[in-house]
């Protein structure tokens, strides 16, 4: 029997994984089995934390809006993200918006 030369598919897959984990420390970027495990773990964490990031920003926006509005004792029902940016950059503009809504 002649020797069978292996294809490049497995090597290409391992190369792709090693490029993903190349910035990890120690065996997490060197050994094939641990690189696969760390890649899966990193992707799971990224997926989970995407939702957490949205939650945290929503909380931050609400906090910023409340901090500015409590000075003036008004209530607003607008887009939180835009209002948070307005609250940081220009408080007077937020007061004008709140006054127009109340009228």
From TrEMBL:
PROSITE patterns: RIBOSOMAL_L20 (PS00937)
UniProt keyword terms in alphabetical order: Ribonucleoprotein, Ribosomal protein, RNA-binding, rRNA-binding
GO molecular function per UniProt: rRNA binding; structural constituent of ribosome
Listed GO CC annotations: ribonucleoprotein complex; ribosome
Record InterPro entries: Ribosomal_bL20, RIBOSOMAL_L20_CS, Ribosomal_protein_bL20_C
Coiled coil feature spans: none
Biological processes, Gene Ontology terms: translation
UniProt keyword annotation of Ribosomal protein present: yes
Transmembrane segments annotated in the record for this chain: none
Family assignment from sequence similarity: Belongs to the bacterial ribosomal protein bL20 family.
PANTHER family named in the record: 39S RIBOSOMAL PROTEIN L20
Descriptive protein name: Large ribosomal subunit protein bL20c
